[in-house]
């Protein structure tokens, strides 16, 4: 069965645009909510925690990249097993989840 290249490219373009729309629109809504929370908050500590909470998904994803995750480990522990890196990942996930839980009322206002 012959499948022309232009048909494949057309399908790939349509699939990519649909996937992009699914990713971008919720992100724009989350950004709007974050911006509104920053406008209504006066405390420096809460604003800092809101910014950390906003960036936390990027930090969590970057921990799973080999180059970034390995650079966080001490130089002697890089030859050891992945238990220390796994511990860093778990601590980061729980810390960021706790910050989001604490700021939930501020974000939703």
Explain what you see:
With 109 residues, the chain is an all-alpha fold. The protein has helices at 5-40, 44-63, 66-72, 83-102, 104-108.
Main features:
single chain, 109 residues, mainly alpha, 0% strand, flat
How are the SSEs placed, and which strands pair?
Elements: H1 5-40, H2 44-63, H3 66-72, H4 83-102, H5 104-108
Helix pairs in contact: 1-2, 2-4
Low-confidence stretches: none
Beta-strand percentage range: under 5%
Name the helix and strand elements from N-terminus to C-terminus, one letter apiece: HHHHH
Number of strands: 0
Count of helical regions: 5
Question: What quaternary form is this?
Answer: single chain
Assign a percent range to the helix content.
Answer: over 70%
Question: What distance separates the N and C termini?
Answer: 57 Å
């Amino acid at each position: 069965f012959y499948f022309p290249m232009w048909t494949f490219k057309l399908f790939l373009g349509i699939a990519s645009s649909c996937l992009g729309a699914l990713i971008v629109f919720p992100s724009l809504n989350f950004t709007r909510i974050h911006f509104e929370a920053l406008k209504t908050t006066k405390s420096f500590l809460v604003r800092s925690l809101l910014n950390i909470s906003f960036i936390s998904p990027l930090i969590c994803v970057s921990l799973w990249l080999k180059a970034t995750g390995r650079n966080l480990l001490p130089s002697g522990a890089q030859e050891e097993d992945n238990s220390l890196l796994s511990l860093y990942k778990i601590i980061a996930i729980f810390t960021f989840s706790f910050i989001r839980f604490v700021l939930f009322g501020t974000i939703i206002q």
